[in-house]
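queue> pop job 88
queue> type: inverse folding (structure -> sequence)
queue> payload:
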């Protein structure tokens, strides 16, 4: 019986942990309800009324609507983020973090991410701290070098 208990104990602990987590309710998705009513009159003078109600989930913020995304602004409007993006290419090249041929695509990904987050009210408040942190990490990776110290491209010969 002791061997049975030692094998069963981890399963019971796991089941209890899952049960404890199962009562966490997620935030309900916002919905839109639309009711359409129509009245028709038959030739005998009788009236008929019909009603139709449909409920749909509202699109999440930042989600695509109609297959298109809102155009991105030219800047985030957050000084630490705009400064980080302005120095991104030269500083990453100087630090040697990415290969030269990867800098442009990585810059575009970072720029798009920061610009989209600057448009999201839930993310915007945290964005200044994120950009400051990114800039500090980049400064550490430079090991005292200037962002102007960009190595010359490797020869293809």
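queue> result:
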């Amino acid at each position: 019986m002791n061997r049975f208990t030692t094998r069963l104990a981890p399963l019971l602990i796991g089941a209890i942990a899952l049960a404890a987590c199962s009562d966490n309710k997620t935030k309900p998705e916002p919905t839109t309800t639309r009711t359409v009513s129509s009245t028709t009159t038959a030739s005998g003078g009788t009236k008929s009324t019909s009603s139709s109600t449909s409920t749909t989930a509202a699109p999440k913020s930042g989600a695509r609507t109609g297959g298109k995304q809102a155009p991105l602004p030219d800047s985030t409007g957050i000084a630490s983020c705009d400064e980080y993006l302005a120095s991104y290419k030269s500083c990453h090249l100087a630090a040697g973090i990415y290969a030269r041929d990867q800098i442009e695509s990585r810059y575009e990904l970072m720029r798009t991410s920061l610009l989209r987050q600057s448009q999201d009210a839930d993310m915007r408040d945290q964005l200044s701290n994120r950009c400051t942190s990114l800039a500090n990490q980049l400064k550490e990776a430079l090991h005292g070098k200037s962002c102007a110290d960009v190595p010359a491209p490797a020869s293809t010969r």
